[in-house]
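Following up on my earlier thread - several people asked me to post the actual chain instead of describing it. Fair enough. Here it is, all 304 residues.
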Amino acid sequence: MKMKMPKNKLAGLQKRKAISGYLFIAPFIIGFLVFMVKPFFQSLWMSFCTVTLGSGEFTSTPIGLDNYKNAFTVDPEYSRLLVEEMGRMMAYTIAIIVFSFFMALILNQKFRGRALVRAVFFLPVILSSGVILGLESNNQLMAQLAQTIEDTTSNISITGALEDVLRTSGVGVRAFDTLFEIIDHIYDVALASGIQIIIFLSGLQTISSSMYEAADIEGCTKWESLWKITFPMISSLFLVNWIYTVIDFSMRSDNEVIKKIQKVMIDNLDYGFASAMSWIYFLLILVFIGITSLFISKRVYYYD
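Reply from S.P.:
Thanks for posting it. Predicted structure:
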């Protein structure tokens, strides 16, 4: 007969878990309240104003929704960049999730040198840090080496030939363009997958081996175990990694929308217009996360 935990003990356990969770995110909450709340609302106010810079200060003149209207009706690039980056975000996020999940499956297997291989796949997290990433992007030696390799390699490319064939056939040209773009930038996908691999790997290690042993006894194949055991047991982590990847992608330095906002703010010194563009992009990302998270959460299996 299955014993049930008393409600008071269950409530106490949930309360302790909640307190632990709040303590874990307390540094972020404190940092947000101290350092980010004022700039957050200041940026929102500036988006409804024309900002005039003076000597050591600036003045804001309210103009209503003009900055938001101009972002869509006057600026010739902003709307196009939003559509392109949202589509690029969707494609790259799916690629990163798929790549990180299957790499986590491989790294969860037992083989010699597993710890070393795991460390290698965690290196992208270290290499993508601010200082090292700046050294990498500004390294002239690495740039010359990459150019030399490109110049000395053969012009024959199997991927390029396959790409030409598929484009000539006229079947799903845009889809193949996106696919080959991701393949050409597989280094970027791997570089952005470090945290996701660790999250998936931690989830895989919580699955009891007895579940797979029972499935083997019942005659399940590895493929069936993947869909019937592995996927349901770590499905909640897909939602976590999806949200993290979308947010991480929206703040990338090669994001064309971010570049556009920086150009308006730094080159044109139009802080009000740049703030409006930033808020439009922020709200669009927020809506995108909300819709996709709602869709994913309906397929998440939660267990005690």
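Residues 134-138 have pLDDT under 50 and may be disordered. That should answer part of your original question.
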